[in-house]
Inverse folding.
């Protein structure tokens, strides 16, 4: 390396930015393979200069390149293209490095070409005219558009570089990578793929095609600023652990919090699905309208001020107006959806709750210095600033306190102590929050956004696990655990068979297909990633989307693509307590009294003396009723004041009372247990009735007298009942493995 001419003093910022890429680039060239450089939410600038830097002697892997290399650069960031025109390299230093490099290669006797490059021959013919002249990278290397083959202008040196071999850079910066461009780029000596901020599916597909053409056994550097950049490529290119190279400072441990708004979102989401249910996913025109409608819908639900969803709604309306000229019948079928979007977008109260929640969180957030508030777009940022001004916070106050309100983007330069997300706007919401290096994260989300964010974090975790970035994985997992508490849950009708404390076991793994399935059960994977583990004989109601008719089928008979009704525990819990309170004060009043008397008796015993769970367990075993310590612990009153469980048989109940040394007659204990048993059976029947009422309301099968009686007795409206059920689509049905360890799908 003594022959290299390092000029750190000339371009310190370039060397600082690219220094982290030197080692992975050396590995890719030395071992002739693909390397994925994964930044832990820290972007790398000036990536397009990396091969030029090595060619001109500013990187330690120049000896691994040919004397006159052909390299390719794919970058969709405008700054990567502009930097090629910045005068960063000294002509005299570059010429001296090339001379020394040829001398070194001649001593190695590897058969490398020792002919000076065209620009070297031109400078040697004019030794004094261009001495110590700073020139851009594109002056020394011929930059060619990968798709068209057209060459870019070579400033200054292009006029004198007449003859001799030349280094070539195939550069792609605009639009998708065409098949011709992919073919040309796949043949270069060294390929740089800068996918930082890659979010367009079509571009990701073209990059995937280029990676397939290139193969894993050619020197290739894939550069991602964070795991989200790899999401669109992950299904087709699950990069192996040995392909990853992580860079940047580790993310520190943080504290995350969630504020839920828009609890009516699940019900509104169902209205949206039915309004656009006639669009076919296999029709390109319908897919376009689905995309436009969904964009307008999310914008309307996330708006913070008047006309917050204006651009998205106008694009949808313009598309409908155009369609009305071409296909009036088709356009008429979208009228219901059009009115729904207009209603949501024009609702003056649509953003009031979210806006107020963001203001409350921002003003009360923890953190010493610096507050970043992420909004959907700049229009939403202005609406939030106006709301803060009403609260008395002027722009000068916000600036003095270090408050930044802006949409999420990689180019935000932190750090800040606190970050507040005004919603979930895709993976770049998480990227910007983590790249800010904030210690406190606050997310203001509605239930659907919470679910979308939870599944997005699952994909990020899968990538981090493959990259073996343990610390970053721990940080993301801590955020996901906080989000999990607010993700709308699912359950089938059997989940309320005993009482409302029981629910179906749901997988919370990043890959729910890895959970084993018990014998006699099936695991139903829904298209939103939710997994339901139920008995194979559990009954589900299958929905005919056109007529909303229901048909009951066994869980084991469900097929891929079936639409089923599933209960939403979170929405149902809002009024299930009222239902149970109503029956406890009515037909089950004596049973509820007996149950409460038993709990009060247990509390008195626990206050009077210290109870040893181990001794109670041993005594019950001696009395012929062996149980575990967890069972005994669940039967004792917890410290938070909630109701404990009770033994499931009379013999266990009596043995438990004897172990606690309760001085009560046998008849009194038997009567208490009978009352508790009647209460439990009554709640089971009540739960079944509630399930039928919910499903009946959803499918419009409740008659007016029945609905009136429900509202009078329990105070539940039809809208509340409908909110407790959702339409879900079956993705796959997993069955238990057989004796040889094979699972049936």
């Amino acid at each position: 390396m003594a022959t290299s001419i390092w000029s750190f003093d000339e371009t310190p910022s370039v060397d600082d930015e690219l220094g982290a890429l030197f080692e992975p680039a050396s590995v890719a060239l030395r071992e002739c393979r693909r390397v994925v450089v994964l930044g832990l939410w820290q972007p790398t600038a000036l990536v397009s200069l990396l091969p030029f830097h090595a060619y001109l002697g500013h990187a330690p892997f120049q000896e691994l390149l040919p004397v006159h290399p052909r390299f390719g650069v794919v970058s969709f960031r405008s700054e990567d293209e502009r930097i090629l025109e910045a005068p960063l390299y000294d002509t005299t230093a570059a010429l001296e490095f090339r001379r020394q490099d040829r001398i070194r290669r001649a001593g190695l006797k590897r058969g490398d070409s020792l002919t000076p490059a065209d620009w070297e021959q031109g400078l040697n013919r004019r030794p004094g005219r261009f001495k110590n002249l700073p020139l851009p990278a594109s002056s020394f290397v011929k930059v060619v558009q990968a798709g068209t083959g057209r060459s870019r202008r070579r400033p200054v040196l292009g006029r004198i570089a007449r003859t001799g071999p030349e280094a070539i850079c195939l550069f792609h910066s605009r639009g998708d990578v065409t098949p011709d461009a992919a073919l040309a780029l796949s043949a270069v000596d060294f390929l740089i793929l800068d996918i930082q901020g890659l979010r367009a599916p079509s571009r990701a597909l073209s990059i995937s095609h280029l990676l397939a053409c290139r193969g894993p056994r050619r020197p290739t550097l894939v550069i991602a600023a964070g795991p989200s950049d790899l999401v669109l490529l992950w299904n087709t290119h699950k990069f192996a652990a040995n392909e990853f190279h992580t860079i940047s400072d580790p993310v520190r441990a943080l504290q995350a919090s969630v504020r839920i708004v828009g609890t009516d979102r699940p019900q509104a989401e169902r209205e949206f699905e039915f309004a656009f249910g006639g669009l076919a996913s296999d029709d390109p025109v319908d897919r376009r309208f689905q995309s436009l409608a969904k964009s307008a819908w999310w914008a309307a639900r996330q708006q913070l001020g008047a006309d917050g969803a204006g651009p998205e709604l106008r694009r949808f309306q313009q598309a409908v107006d155009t369609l009305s000229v071409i296909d009036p019948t088709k356009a008429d079928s979208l009228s219901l959806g059009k009115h729904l979007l207009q209603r949501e977008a024009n609702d003056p109260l649509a953003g009031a709750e979210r806006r107020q929640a963001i203001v409350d969180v921002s003003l009360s957030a923890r953190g010493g210095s610096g507050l970043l508030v992420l909004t959907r777009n700049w229009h939403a940022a202005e609406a939030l600033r106006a709301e803060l001004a009403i609260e008395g916070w002027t722009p000068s106050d916000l600036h003095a306190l270090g408050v930044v309100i802006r949409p999420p983007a990689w180019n935000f330069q932190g750090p800040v102590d606190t970050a507040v997300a005004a919603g979930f706007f895709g993976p770049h919401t998480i990227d910007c929050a983590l790249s800010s290096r904030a210690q406190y994260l606050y997310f203001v989300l509605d239930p659907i956004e919470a679910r979308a964010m939870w599944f997005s974090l699952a994909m990020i975790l899968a990538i981090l696990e493959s990259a073996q970035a343990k610390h970053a994985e721990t940080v993301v997992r801590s955020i996901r655990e906080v989000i999990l508490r607010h993700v709308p849950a699912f359950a089938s009708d059997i989940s309320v068979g005993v009482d409302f404390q029981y629910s179906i076991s749901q997988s919370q793994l990043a890959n729910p297909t890895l959970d084993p399935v018990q014998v006699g059960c099936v695991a139903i994977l829904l298209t939103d990633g939710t997994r339901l583990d139920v008995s194979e004989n559990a009954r589900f109601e299958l929905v005919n989307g056109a007529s909303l008719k229901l048909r009951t089928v066994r869980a084991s008979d469900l097929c891929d693509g079936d639409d089923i009704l599933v209960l939403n525990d979170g929405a149902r819990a809002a009024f299930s307590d009222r239902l149970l309170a109503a029956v406890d004060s009515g037909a089950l009043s004596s049973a509820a009294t007996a149950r409460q008397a038993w709990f009060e008796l247990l509390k008195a015993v626990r206050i009077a003396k210290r109870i040893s769970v181990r001794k109670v367990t041993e005594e019950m075993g001696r009395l012929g009723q062996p149980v575990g310590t967890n069972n005994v612990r669940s039967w004792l009153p917890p410290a938070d004041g909630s109701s404990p469980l009770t033994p499931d048989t009379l013999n266990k109940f009596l043995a438990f009372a004897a172990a606690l040394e309760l001085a009560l007659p046998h008849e009194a204990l038997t009567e208490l247990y009978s009352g508790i048993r009647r209460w439990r059976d009554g709640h089971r029947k009540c739960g079944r009735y509630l399930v039928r009422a919910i499903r009946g309301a959803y499918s419009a099968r409740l008659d007016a007298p029945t609905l009136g009686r429900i509202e009078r007795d329990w105070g539940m409206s039809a809208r509340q009942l409908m909110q407790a059920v959702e339409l879900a689509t079956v993705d796959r049905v997993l069955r238990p493995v057989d004796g040889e360890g094979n699972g049936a799908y």
Observations:
- Confidence is low (pLDDT under 50) at residues 1-12, 489-513, 569-575, 739-745.
- The two ends are 58 Å apart (CA to CA).
- DSSP finds 28 helices and 20 strands in the chain.
